[in-house]
Design goal:
extended, 18 helices, three-stranded antiparallel beta sheet, 524 residues, mainly alpha, 49% helix
C-alpha cells in the first residue's frame, strides 16, 4: 500500500519519504538571499524592534543596569531563584525505575567535577538570559585517563555571538558586524540559554531593550527636574521699592537681597517691603508622577508587576497577593530555564563520557509539599467523613508516633516486658468475634445483590466464599469484580461495589469497637 493520507473529502493523497524528511519553509525558500553571502553578512540581523528603531546595538543594554530601578528589579527577580534551596541533581533513570549502576557512576563523576565550579555564579549567569535574550555558557574540558572531566562552566558576553541563517550560533568577537569571518562553534563546547527564542528571532526576547525608552525618559526627566528644583525649590525674595526710588536705589536694594540669600541679612531703604515667594507645588508633583511612571514601567517589564519591589500607597492584601503570585510565576519559569540549561550540560557530559543507553543526570527544583495546603485538604476530607490512620500523619507530616493520637482510635496498650505475644494463634474469644463479624458481612453483601443473582444459591455461595477468603479491602473488591463483572452492567457494578466496600468498612469498625468494649469489661 502506498504511503499517503485520506483527505476529508475521501480522496487519497500520496506522499514520499523525501517530502516528509526535508524542510520546506526555510529562509532560502522564503527568498531571504543574504543567507548565501559570506562573512558577517551571512549572520542574521538582530530583529529586536526597540534596538532597530533606535539604531543601537545590543551592547547598550549593559548601560541600563546603572539605573537604580533596573538594578533593583533585576536583583529581585534573580534572588527569588538564587535563594531557593531546593535545586538538586540526581542520577538519570526511567520514571518509576531505579538508576542503573552505569548511570549512578556517571552521576558520581559529574558531581565530583562540579565541585570545582561555582554553581551559584553559573545559575546567576543563566538568569541573565531574560534580560539580554540569551546567555552563552562555554564548557571547559580536560581529558585525564579515560575520562573527559568538566573543569569549568564560564558565561561569556552575549554580544560576542550572533546566529547564522540556520539559527546556529557563531562567534564574532567584540567588534560584531566588523568581524571578517564568523567562527562556527565546535560541538560539545557551548550551551546557549535562550529566553523565548523563536525561528524568526533566535536572539531571544530581551526585556532590557523594552526598558530603553523608560530609562531614557527617566534620565531626561531627572535632569530637567533637578534644574527645576534648583531654580524653584528655594523661595524667591521679592522686594517692593518705594515709588519715588531711583534706579540706583533699586539696584542697591537688589544686591542686598541677593546677599540675603547667602547670610539671611539685608539692609533695605525705608518704606521698602520684602517678602518670600515660593513656587507652587503643582509643577513638582507633575515631575514626580512622571518619574514614578517610568519606574512602574520598568518594574512591569522586568518583574511583571510592581508591588513586590515598591509601595504604591494604600494597597489591599488581595492586590499584594496577586502581584506576588505573578512574581512567583516568573520565578517558576526561571527555575525551569535553569533546569533546562543544566540538563543540557549533563546531556553533553553523558555524550562525551558514557556509552549509548546510559541516561544523563537530571536537574530539578524539588519543592517540598505545602503542609498548610495539605492540612486544609485533610480538614475538608475529615468534615465529609474521612478518617486517617497514624501512618498518614507520620508519612505526610513527619510526626513521631508518640507525639499524637488519632481521635477515636483505641490507645495502644504497653507490652509487658519480657512477655511474648503470639499473633499467629488468636484467642478463642477473638475467633468467635471474627466469625460473627464475617457472617454479618456475608449477609449484608449478599442482601445487596440484585434479585436475579440472589435467587441462585450456587452464585450466592461463591460470593460468600469470596468474602470469607478476602484478606483485605482491595482483595475483597478484586474478588467481587471477578465474580460480578459478567453479570452486571458497569454502572450497576460500580454502585454495588461502592455500597459493599462501605459496608465492609462499617462492619470492620464495629468489630473493632466490640473488641475494645470486651477488653474493657474483662479488665474491669
Amino acid at each position: 500500500m502506498a504511503d499517503g493520507l485520506y483527505m476529508p473529502d475521501g480522496t487519497f493523497r500520496p506522499f514520499s519519504a523525501a517530502e516528509l524528511s526535508t524542510e520546506l519553509a526555510t529562509r532560502q525558500n522564503a527568498g531571504v538571499y543574504y543567507a548565501e553571502l559570506e562573512g558577517w553578512l551571512s549572520t542574521l540581523p538582530d530583529p529586536d524592534p526597540v534596538l532597530r528603531k533606535r539604531g543601537d546595538e545590543a551592547t547598550v543594554l549593559h548601560d541600563l543596569s546603572a539605573d537604580d530601578q533596573v538594578t533593583t528589579a533585576m536583583l529581585s527577580r534573580k534572588n527569588r531563584v538564587l535563594n531557593c534551596p531546593h535545586f538538586s541533581l540526581r542520577a538519570g533513570a526511567v520514571e518509576g525505575e531505579e538508576p542503573t549502576p552505569e548511570a549512578e557512576e556517571l552521576f558520581r563523576r559529574f558531581r565530583q567535577d562540579l565541585e570545582r565550579t561555582n554553581q551559584r555564579s553559573i545559575i546567576s549567569a543563566i538568569l541573565d538570559a531574560p534580560f539580554y535574550g540569551y546567555t552563552p555558557l562555554e564548557l571547559v574540558w580536560e581529558f585525564s585517563g579515560d575520562w573527559w572531566h568538566l573543569v569549568d562552566i564560564i558565561a561569556r558576553p552575549f554580544h560576542w555571538f550572533r546566529f547564522d541563517s540556520k539559527n546556529q550560533p557563531v562567534f564574532v568577537g567584540e567588534y560584531g558586524l566588523f568581524c571578517a569571518e564568523p567562527k562556527p562553534l565546535p560541538p560539545g563546547k557551548f550551551v546557549f540559554v535562550t529566553h523565548h527564542a523563536t525561528y524568526d528571532n533566535p536572539y531571544g526576547l530581551r526585556l532590557l531593550s523594552r526598558c530603553l525608552w523608560p530609562v531614557s525618559f527617566k534620565r531626561g526627566g531627572l535632569t530637567f527636574y533637578s534644574r527645576f528644583v534648583e531654580r524653584h525649590g528655594m523661595p524667591w525674595v521679592v522686594g517692593e521699592a518705594p515709588s519715588q526710588a531711583k534706579a540706583e536705589d533699586k539696584n542697591e536694594m537688589a544686591r542686598n537681597l541677593a546677599r540675603m540669600v547667602q547670610d539671611a541679612v539685608a539692609v533695605i531703604p525705608h518704606g521698602a517691603n520684602v517678602k518670600l515667594e515660593s513656587a507652587g507645588q503643582t509643577q513638582g508633583e507633575i515631575h514626580e508622577k512622571f518619574l514614578a511612571r517610568q519606574d512602574k514601567a520598568i518594574s512591569k517589564i522586568l518583574m511583571g508587576q510592581t508591588l513586590t519591589i515598591e509601595m504604591e500607597g494604600k494597597n489591599s492584601q488581595a492586590a499584594a497577593q496577586t502581584h506576588n503570585d505573578v512574581a512567583e510565576g516568573l520565578a517558576d519559569a526561571d527555575k525551569a530555564m535553569v533546569c533546562d540549561a543544566w540538563n543540557e550540560v549533563a546531556w553533553l557530559y553523558a555524550q562525551v563520557n558514557a556509552t549509548p543507553g546510559v541516561l544523563a543526570p537530571l536537574a530539578a527544583y524539588e519543592e517540598p509539599d505545602d503542609l498548610n495546603t495539605r492540612a486544609d485538604l485533610d480538614k475538608k476530607l475529615t468534615e465529609i467523613g474521612a478518617e486517617f490512620t497514624e501512618e498518614h500523619f507520620t508519612e505526610v507530616y513527619g510526626l513521631k508516633p508518640g507525639e499524637f493520637q488519632v481521635r477515636g482510635a483505641a490507645p495502644s496498650l504497653p507490652e509487658t516486658e519480657g512477655a511474648a505475644t503470639d499473633f499467629a494463634a488468636p484467642a478463642a474469644r477473638e475467633m468467635r468475634m471474627a466469625e460473627t463479624a464475617q457472617k454479618t458481612l456475608d449477609a449484608a453483601i449478599v442482601k445487596m445483590l440484585p434479585k436475579t443473582l440472589r435467587a441462585s444459591n450456587a452464585f450466592v455461595g461463591e460470593v460468600e466464599d469470596a468474602v470469607r477468603k478476602a484478606t483485605s479491602y482491595d482483595d475483597l473488591q478484586d474478588r467481587l469484580v471477578e465474580l460480578l463483572a459478567p453479570s452486571m452492567t458497569p454502572r450497576t457494578l460500580e454502585n454495588f461495589l461502592a455500597c459493599a466496600m462501605t459496608a465492609a468498612a462499617g462492619h470492620g469498625a464495629a468489630a473493632i469497637e466490640a473488641e475494645i468494649e470486651a477488653d474493657g469489661q474483662e479488665n474491669a
